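INTERNAL AUDIT FORM
Audit reference: QA-55
Scope: verify that the stored structure record matches its stored sequence.
Auditor: D.O.
Record contents follow.
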Amino acid sequence: MKTAGLLGREFKHGEADCFSLMREFYATNFGIQVPDVARPDNWWEPDAEGKHLNLYLDLYHEVGFDLFHGHPRSRLPGDVILMAIRAPVANHGAILLPGEKILHHLAGQVSCIESYNRPLFRDTTVAVLRHPQVDGSKLLTETEIDAWDLVPQRIRDQLEDARQGRLDV
């Protein structure tokens, strides 16, 4: 999965946040254009009347995703993990990567890849979304490769000769 250009971004709500990161990830990796959604500041916090928006769960279907109801072990790379971090509704989204890693962008931080198994993420998960055009099982086999297999045989032979002290320079 391609993450070049998606890491180390400064956070700016509505422009460079977890939702915009997810949109760009899907465009880059799958050619899927996820529509943008207006996100007022602090939309997840209750207003004066005690009401709050639940943007992720109210709009996931409109932007092309389905709610995933399977077992946590059935989650696949490319799934979107929704979390309610210090909020009553899902207010953070991350993309699941191979190896139980997530690509995400928290407020006040730069976009990064971290372990999903941190309690902050794992224990605040409220839903998982899957796009019907993404087959994460194929991504898993495509991304879990041994880099040694990409090295041409003649280079591997030269490296082995050098390791054995047989390289004639």
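Auditor finding: record pair retrieved intact. The mean pLDDT is 88.
Action required: none
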